[in-house]
Amino acid sequence: MGKKDQYKVLKLYGIPVDADPSGNYQLRADANDQIKVHSWRIGKHTKGKYTGPGQLMLTENNLTVVILKAEPMAFKDRHQEVPMQRFLTVQVTDEVLARGLGLLKEFL
Questions:
Q1: Pfam families in the record, alphabetically (predicted)?
Q2: What is the SS3 assignment for 89?
Q3: How many whole angstroms separate alpha carbon 87 and alpha carbon 64?
Q4: Among 3, 5, 9, which Cα is nearest to 82's?
């Protein structure tokens, strides 16, 4: 693949979220009541723009995720991560972001 066919790849760390009855997003716990950090990457056909931590995105399986951190990823390494589908223009509250960032520190 030539250089002109390459695109900028970001590795994104995030936690799935659910909307509560008030419409605010909260971190989603798994069946064992644990909240886990996962990673994805930007794909060739990803829609939208990354604006910063706290932004929501959709995965290819339509899972809503809060982005906690983004870092550059080598184009050749992109197949190590699952691509995401779309950036959303919605943000989580500062409290939810702070809790997620605390969990990210434990993860990294």
A1: DUF7671
A2: strand
A3: 10
A4: 9
